[in-house]
Every structure is written in C-alpha cells, then in structure tokens.
From TrEMBL:
Organism: Heterobasidion irregulare (strain TC 32-1)
InterPro entries: BTB/POZ_dom, SKP1/BTB/POZ_sf
Signal sequence interval, chain numbering: none
Name by which UniProt lists this protein: BTB domain-containing protein
Ranges of residues in domain BTB: 16-83
Pfam annotation, one family: BTB
Highest classification ranks of the organism: Eukaryota, Fungi, Dikarya, Basidiomycota, Agaricomycotina
C-alpha cells in the first residue's frame, strides 16, 4: 500500500475530528460540522451509528478515517471551496471533470449551479467535450448550445468524454452536423434566395440601397 501522506494547511490541523483519505493515500483532517453543512450525503453518513474501530487503517491519531474513491487533487479542490479559505484556481475541463462527478455524487450544495457555469464558460473553447459532459449530466440546453458551437469546427473532433455518452447521443450530434451542412448546401446551390431586387446592380455600377429585400 502507498505510504500515508498528510494534506497541506488547513487540512493538517490537530483539532479536526475526522479524516478523509483520498484514493492516492493523502489524509485530509477536516471537521464534521463543515461536511454536515456542505453535503447531504455526508450529513446522512455522519448520522449513522459508527461501528467500533477494529482495523488499523480505519483510525489514525484517534480520529475515524473515511476511505474515499476520489484522488487528493479532487478532494483538495472541493474542500478548499467549502472551507473559509481562498478558493482554488479553476483549471480546464480535464481538471474539473472529476470535480463535477464528486460534487454530484456527494450532493455538495455549495456547488449548486457550478457544473453548469463551468460548462458554459468552456462552451466556445471545447464544444465537443462540453456537449458530451452536458449529455452525461442531462443539461439539454447546454448540450444544444454546444452542438451549435461545434459547427465552427471542420469536423466532430475527438474528445475523451465522448465515451461517457450513449451511441444515440453521439449519433444525434453527427446527424445535426450533417443536417446543417445539407441546409447550407441547399441554400448555396439554389438561386431562390438571390431574389430579384430592382435596387441592386450587377453590371459594375454602384448599388443603391436595397428597399425591397
């Protein structure tokens, strides 16, 4: 097993009353009261009768240890957000995606609207990734806007997040691109939109302001 490491301040304080241990063996000494307020899942967990400690790795320095599936980077971001300390720097989607999953999993109420805000912020920059994540979390309006933004790309580029959505959701994105391309081709191949307008000249003479189209 990995050697247990201690998280940095403020999650290394002796007055904490519970330890959250990350998947990569970093111990975060935190306070039950803050977890109670911030997360309905932890609130329910802390209400359950606590079993007697029988294993060495379930207790450290007299504090109960809760083993979590999340890594230290993700836990550090979330805990610094809910604690009264400087908020962590927000990175790109690759950094935020595990945070999205964790705040949904543990119902961190302080993050209400956080996922939507970050997806909207990244929409123009990474439309395919945003589309996939929005589909995964059922944010249909964001998925639609991301699909529209993806039209600026020459093709549907690869994103690691596409594997998180269904084949149907991916097919809808591909079909949307095809429909838009076909619509543009239809317009460009037809002269119907180039309606006759008496105020427009095509013989090289100056064009007067169009008053009929």
């Amino acid at each position: 097993p990995d050697k247990i490491k201690d998280a940095s301040y403020p999650f290394d304080q002796a007055h904490a009353d519970i330890i959250l241990r990350s998947s990569d063996s970093v111990d975060f000494r935190v306070h039950k009261t803050i977890l109670w307020v911030a997360s309905s899942v932890f609130r329910d967990m802390l209400c359950l009768p606590q079993p007697s400690q029988s294993k060495d790795d379930e207790c450290r320095d007299g504090l109960p240890v809760v083993m979590l599936e999340e890594d230290a980077k993700t836990l550090n971001f979330i805990l610094r957000t809910i604690y009264p300390v400087r908020s962590p720097t927000i990175g790109g989607l690759d950094d935020l995606y595990p945070v999205f999953h964790t705040v949904q999993k543990y119902c961190f109420e302080a993050f209400e609207g956080f996922v939507e805000e970050q997806l909207n912020a990244a929409l123009q920059r990474e439309p395919i990734s945003v589309y996939a994540i929005a589909c995964q979390y059922e944010f249909d309006d964001i998925a639609q806007r991301a699909a529209e933004a993806s039209l600026a790309l020459p093709s549907v580029t690869h994103s690691q997040y596409l594997k998180q959505i269904s084949g149907e959701q991916y097919s809808r994105l591909i079909q949307y691109h095809r429909d838009c391309v076909n619509a543009v081709d239809k317009v460009l191949s037809s002269d119907e939109w180039f309606a006759t307008c008496p105020d427009i000249f095509f013989d090289g003479s100056p064009a007067a302001p169009c008053s009929t189209c």
